[in-house]
Amino acid sequence: MDTSVDKAHRIRFWLEDPRVRGIVENVADGVIGIDTVGYVELFNRAAERLFGYDPAEVMGRNVKMLMPPEYGDHHDGFIARYLDSGERHIIGTGREVTGRRKDGTTFPMYLSVGEITVPGFRGFIGVVHDLTAQKAAEQAVASAREFLQSIIDSMPSALIGVDHEGRITHWNRAAAGDRGLASGDAVGRHFPELFPFVGLGLSEIADAIQEQRAIKKERVPVPSGGTACYVDVLLYPLMHDSAGAVVRIDDVTERVRIEEMMVQTEKMMSVGGLAAGMAHEINNPLGVLAQGCQNLLRRVSPEIPENLRVAAEFGVDIEQVRAYLRERGFFRFLDGMQEATARAAHIVTDMLTYSRRSASSFEPVRLNGLLDTVLRLAGHDYDLKKGLDFRRIAIHRQSIGASDEVYCDALGIEQVVLNLLRNAAQAMAGSPTSPPEITLIVADQGDHVRLEVADNGPGMTEEIKRRLFEPFFTTKPVGVGTGLGLSVAYFIVTVQHRGSLEVRSAPGQGARFIVRLPHEGRPYGIGGPGG
Amino acid sequence: MASAVLVVDDEMAICEGLAAFLEDEGMQVQTAHSGEEAIELLAADPLVQVCIIDLRLPGMNGTEAMVEIHRRVPAVRFVIHTGTAREAVLTELRRTGLQAPPIFKKPAHDLGEMARVVFELCRGA
Fold first, then answer.
1. Domains in chain B and their CATH numbers?
2. For B61-101, what is each residue's pLDDT tens digit?
3. B95 and chain A: CB distance < 8 Å anywhere?
4. B85 vs A contacts (CB less than 8 Å)
């Protein structure tokens, strides 16, 4: 119950003065006045708009109705504490808080609170500044920044920002790579310190930025233990900021490897071109050698009646002659000549592979049938007869899936499989402890067929695996094989058939060669796609 | 009756070598150094059962010779002995329409295999 004395000391009655009301109602921010209990004495027009209340709904009620409960519940206590202790927390200053509207929604606001002490009245005046728009803007900026960082981090290229003194200012995830350096650790350090292998010195960087000139270094080797890695490095001065640059580093190891293989292939193909024309010329004299050796062997054999007859004519004992010849190394030398002839023939055949117009000889082939043919050929194969008898090897066959048919060059794939079988047989010949086994698997994998040749030989080291498909790389002793076989096989599968060939092996665990050939075949002729 | 074989190759040493081997096997072997010579020989002695022939010959090539010989003496069976790549051979043969005979690539490391094939062809004929 207000007496007229009280009236003079209640804020709400001050508003009857139009000058006071003019000031209060036209302040752009919300103005709320409360007494020491917390009841609202003043609620200006801006506050009405902010909170969505009519003054009549708010006046005389506790101001905590304008707050979300987690704050409002404590408000009475805050006032009481202040009145008790005089310790200022928000009084005289302000802070960001949350307001609650009539419809229950909340909004961010800046609240600054002052104390009114006039004769007969004590209360508090709060000014409410709506932060909604500001918060939205801050959020937009943060989102944009996050998005930008995400873009930068998502790039597979390493992106490094440097200033004109060559110090790192920015660093994306790809740049950190496997160093385990977080952005914080890299920023501020000098670029050449963290990337010495790039060969970009501080003065070089500074000059490039100064002259607004880009620097490009291609195929820079990266020291990385085992395999060689290569990167392309590009430095771009920043366009709108002449005090910095961006360095981009891309891993191009794969591309370099493919290019090297293609260069190698080119060389082989030009040699192959020569060989094609000369195959017949070379094979004829080789034929004479091969025949001659076989005839020499047979004509000292007691199994041929004609030999016995002529020997008798000369009064010669064939067995004695054989013994003499053996003693003098005759058969060893003949063996050597036959092997050498075979080797030479293989080299010619391998060279010819590179010049074949394979695109025109593609046809649908059932791989299981092809394996049957190859196994039959292997039984007669000269190389396989020497050393390990192919017929003694246990062959296991597996066929998985619906279709084993691929559109391919049958002769080429036969050559690949025969080569893999030879390798397996030779590997196992070197370690005769366990019974030799070769497993052949044909598996339909949907868009391609997987063909595996696995042996239980001694397996190979990481070192050998890496170099296995290099032309002329061989682990066999001098004179055995040409070292071309696997590189030719690799060429036939990957270039001519656009398939893949890989090896899985470890010492003591045999070797598994996996050939993948697309079902519908993508022949790649020597002249380019389309033959 | 001994198998009668005709070896056709322009390389004399190849002819001699093959002849020596096959004769040791008990066959009767004649040689010719060109397609034309082969046809003449067959005209004189049509009892040849198997003809071992190279594809690259002076004058008419091996495939042409095969077609001609087949026309005159259809009973003759063929064995191809060539230094040319197998694929090119098959392509050529397809054009002649002749059924693909056994093909031995030069250098032939296993003449015993060739002899066996010749015996079988003689038996078949």
1. 4-124 (3.40.50.2300)
2. 888 899 899 888 888 999 999 887 666 667 767 777 677 78
3. no
4. 276, 279, 349, 352, 356
